[in-house]
Amino acid sequence: MFRFIVVACVAVVAVNGLSQELKEKFMERLETVGGECAAEVGANEDDIAELIAHKMPSRHEGECMIFCFYKHFDMMHADGSLHAEGAIKMMEPLKADDPDLYEKLMTIGKACAEEVSSLDDKCKYATLLAQCGVKKGKEMGLDESLFE
Description:
This protein has seven helices and no strands. By secondary structure, it is mainly alpha-helical. The longest helix is centred in the first third of the chain and has 22 residues, at 20-41.
């Protein structure tokens, strides 16, 4: 089975083309998980502000926020390995709501899983996956303003 990951940054972008109900559910969960992750990894306001501004983290705690999101959204295991089945399951609601976007995100996830080599530092690995996802998203024509 192929390895798969959908980056949180791209998932946030995906929300913009979805039904209002799906957007609201996703954003509520994102807010809840964000609070849990900040406490879990010791992220400060600057770390959170960078992520909200769609900037890559400048501190390790910010990188760990990305890993924590992936873990909570069942896209990575606690050991830092990719969880393909969980990522695909998380994307299921998108398939019916916006099949074109679903296919783009699946393509991005597959490409990044193949291109980004696993690291011992699971936070750095998650961040590299996120960077890959942003790059691939721009290449596929997803709204660039959302990555800035």
